[in-house]
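Q: Got a minute? One more chain.
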Amino acid sequence: MDRRTTDDALRIEEGSLYPALYRMQAKKWISAAWGKSEAGNRIKLYSLTTKGRGQLKVQTAQWTACVVAMHKVLHAT
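A: Always. Here it is, folded:
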């Protein structure tokens, strides 16, 4: 993810990213394969699995409910 996508508000450090990727791979939410970058370097590519898409829907719904609740709290009169 490019930092410009979030106006640099969301930063994910390597120390957090790779353990999260390994956990998601262990849960079979993502799969990994070796590929090549545009520069020709060997890189690991991650893809969502069918199970991962289902989990994404679940977690997106939970996050949306949390955002709606927070909006209500912040805008309560």
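A: Strands lie at 30-36, 42-48.
Q: Perfect, thanks.
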